[in-house]
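Bug report (template v2)

What were you trying to do?
Predict the complex of my protein with 8-OXO-2'-deoxyguanosine-5'-triphosphate.

What happened?
Run completed; filing so the output is reviewed.

Input:
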Amino acid sequence: MSKTNPFPPHKIIGVAVIWDDNQQILIDRRLPQGVMGGLWEFPGGKIEPGETIAECIQREIKEELGIEIAVGEHLITIDHTYTHLRVTLMVHHCRLIKGIPQPIECDEICWVNLDDLDKFTFPQANIQIIAALKQSIKQFK
Ligand SMILES: Nc1nc2c([nH]c(=O)n2[C@H]2C[C@H](O)[C@@H](COP(=O)(O)OP(=O)(O)OP(=O)(O)O)O2)c(=O)[nH]1
Ligand SMILES: [Mg+2]
């Protein structure tokens, strides 16, 4: 009988909701191979020792997309356990400062309106991120 590891590895991930000047959000599609291959996500990655979350997000976005961003307000922190992995997603609103995003480490990228996010398939943990995002925007309307 197969058993699920009760202590799956834990990753702390800095996640960016990057806004441009037209109120659009940048999402990327993960490479087809590997964990959660082919799903859409908000760009980001694993924190390195000694880094703040803002530094992690800035570094990951430079590495993955070749752009500079300003890291702003904290949106939400999500703890989620997948079958073989536990993630803590620390999500911040960010703003594009410089450059045109390139799909350096992902399959494709897309600027979308908040209302169009539902048309893309995200990992399960993102349902809560998207709900928080819609909630945070409503406050301004
Ligand atoms: N970046 C990002 N990761 C997400 C989101 N939702 C979600 O469940 N994840 C999960 C998928 C991955 O297991 C993990 C992020 O890992 P990653 O593969 O981008 O990070 P990394 O490149 O720094 O990690 P690694 O090479 O050291 O494995 O978080 C999301 O919206 N954005
Ligand atoms: Mg990543």
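What did the reviewer find?
The two ends are 53 Å apart (CA to CA). The chain is about 20% helix and 35% strand.
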